[in-house]
Amino acid sequence: MALLGILFLIVGLLVSVGLHELGHLIPAKRFGAKVSHYFIGFGPTLWSTYKNGTEYGIKAIPLGGFVRISGMLSPGRASRRTVGSDGKPTMAEEARQQSAAELEEGEESQAFWRLSVPKRIVVMFSGPFVNLLLAALCMAVVMCGIGSGVASNQLSAVQACVTTSSECTDSDPVSPASAAGLQAGDEIVSWGGVAVSDWADIQREIADGGTESAPVVVVRDGEELTLTVQPVETERPQYDSDGNAVTDDDGNAVTASVPYVGISPAYALERQSITSVPGSVWSLATGTAAVVARLPMELWNTGVDLVTGADRSTSGVIGIVGVADVAGSITSVQSDQYTLVARIGDLLMLIGSLNMSLFIFNLIPLLPLDGGHILGALYEGVRRQFAKLRGRPDPGPVDMARALPLSYAVAVFFVLMTVFLVVADIVSPVI
User: Fold this and answer.
1) Which of 282, 290, 317, 326 is the most buried if burial means most Cβ atoms within 10 Å?
2) Distances (CA, A) of 333 to 298, 306, 321, 328, 330
3) How far apart are the first and last CA of the chain?
4) Residues labelled catalytic
């Protein structure tokens, strides 16, 4: 069952990457640029075919895909430095020559760098934009078609005792819920004389009532029963808005004395209006952007957790192995209340979240990411407009080859980050 979830994830990622690359390919060909290759996967070619000057195919390693647009780099100025101190062409000049060699004689006008600034921005932005649309589509299907899990007024579990460990001991007192006779499956309709319809209502009444005994009306097997529950005061861990345990300066968990009953809610699927989708997409986008913005710190914290043996934060970054583990858990966890429809919804939300990550991540304004090319085109457009306003000659295209050392450094960082997160996901998985 876990393999089914992992397979769903792999197929979903390949479809997402394939559509991302189509987002680049279609406008590039429409604007007249030469697109020589479109492949799903990496490594040896398993199958390919040529159509309208482009080779389409599938490669052996299903870990991504690529589209090759010819002539990405401009020739550079005539006064550019072409030879290094060793007498050999510079790294940037070799890249310029390789870019020019991708075009046959007579195809020079099809070079990507010859496209207008707006067209280049459209080509580079369309790939990530496809991922944004896929994220929104997944969320819309789940929220409006399947429904989102909402904590209901039905109980999924009743704790047998009051304890902070996973199992009860002889010294642990019986929980108020168990002592009152509450059972899993009970539907709570009123607490302390106040009608309740969802878990938030129940939580509020428990907090307001403190440790005073309260009459609780439940529906069990179609009949109403009135039970008396007296919560107890106990120390419970505190959590922030992201669901992470709050700790003090010494790293110790922060607790607070609260009324405790010992019940857990069952979750029901509740469909939402299509008008709620944009807000949810925006929340996912801003949350993902916040994680990307603090990526260096998150990687550092993950490294510290690995060294110290501490549990990894559930709101931190995880690698592809961790995502696969989540997908496998969705399909393999044993629970009668976790229906097939709910599992499909969670898998779609996982794919949607990954597409949002691809959207945000690719817009980072660094080469070789799409955002780096977009930034270069914007800079070129602004530079040309300033020259025009000042009556100066057109400065020409931006020489993106000069940024290749930074591009290679960014690529190496991403490779190392991927390997590091794979190791972290294996050695210290997020629980």
Assistant:
1) 317
2) 28, 26, 18, 8, 6
3) 19
4) 21
5: nearest Cα among 339, 425, 343, 319? 343
Label residue 58 exposed, middle or buried (CB < 10 Å: 0-12, 13-18, 19+): middle
Tokens of residue 348, six digits: 């779609």
Whether 128 and 358 have beta carbons less than 8 Å apart is answered as yes
> Minimal CA–CA distance to 160: which of 151, 148, 170?
170
